[in-house]
Write a structure and sequence with these properties.
Radius of gyration: 21 Å
Helix content: under 10%
Number of strands: 5
Largest sheet: 3 strands, antiparallel
Strand content: 15-25%
Number of helices: 0
Order of helices and strands: EEEEE
Strand order of the largest sheet: 3-4-5
Length: 77
C-alpha cells in the first residue's frame, strides 16, 4: 500500500497520496490529482510526499460517561 513516514513528534503515518499536501481530491474518492504526477490512485505514494495533517480524518470522538450522584451520596463540604 504506502510507505511509513516517521516524524519526530508524530506516530507512524502512512505515506499515501490522499494525505499529501501536493494532492487534490477529484470527484472519484479513489483518485487524486497530484501536482507532480497528475491523476493517481489515493493509495499511491511518490518521493515528493509531504504530509498535510489537515487532510487526515481524526475519527469519532468518544464521550466520557459522567457518573450521577443523589443528594445522599454527595460528600459534605
Amino acid at each position: 500500500m504506502g510507505e511509513v513516514c516517521m516524524k519526530k513528534k508524530s506516530p507512524e503515518l502512512e505515506k499515501l497520496c490522499k494525505f499529501c499536501e501536493r494532492a487534490s481530491s477529484l470527484n472519484d474518492p479513489d483518485r487524486m490529482l497530484c501536482h507532480k504526477k497528475g491523476v493517481v490512485s489515493a493509495g499511491y505514494s511518490c518521493r515528493s510526499f509531504s504530509y498535510d495533517p489537515l487532510k487526515r480524518d481524526p475519527g469519532k470522538r468518544i464521550k466520557a460517561e459522567i457518573p450521577t450522584f443523589s443528594d445522599a451520596e454527595m460528600p459534605e463540604v
